Amino acid sequence: MRPFLFLGTRAEDLVAEQEYDAMLAGTGLRPDELVRVRLEAGPLGDIDLDDWSGVILGGGPFNMSDPQELKSSVQRRVEAELHDLAERVVATDTPFLGACYGIGVLGTRAGGVVDRTYGEAIGALPVRLSADGLADPLFGELPEVFNAYLGHKEAVSQLPEGAVLLASTDTCPVHAFRLGRNVYATQFHPELDAAALCDRVDAYSAHGYYELHEQESLKTAAREAQVTEPVRLLARFVELYARA
User: Fold this and answer.
1) In Å, what is the CA distance from 12 to each residue of 5, 9, 76, 217?
2) Catalytic position from the list 100, 152, 154, 175
3) Residue 118 and which of 152, 155, 165, 194 are 20 to 30 A apart at CA?
4) pLDDT tens digits for 56-98?
């Protein structure tokens, strides 16, 4: 099998390792089958998409809607590299699954708008599949309504040209969409469990996702939530796209 490529952007080592471990567990792949590149640590380099079964992009603290003057040189480099990769992925319809940050990367191309209109607080919310989501080869494995962990400052307020809406919440109209047949973005985190979300609450306490007095209550709510279905997307992605 050709390996899958996993792209991370988290500078915090503990959270970066947890995210990668969760992706390995969810996909059922070994490290040599899900090869990681930490984009915050160095350039992406030359990527031949034919070498890979598909690409998975994790989340992180970067936001496309951050004011340009406040973006670090690392964030600007990562955005430029992912923009170029996304253009190639969409042009070739290469299997791609972008979790959370994928919304920013794919949602800003071809007339799409990503802004702060539909941000959602850290926690778990019901996600509802659209009719197209129910019929989709990847998302159709999930129930029509399922709980998912999320937490984001920005979201898609206008879909890119040609995008197919797959899922929404009551407070965010675009939680997943597809471009072409094989390119996907989700706003929620398919890899997260309660323990990992609690660690992210702690790791990103200074990033403006919540008020400090909310920290412990957010973690309590995360532990009490029943979130079981989103992780199935990872194994299904591998089932659909693993190739010799």
Assistant:
1) 20, 9, 18, 23
2) 100
3) 194
4) 999 988 999 999 999 999 999 999 999 999 999 999 999 999 9
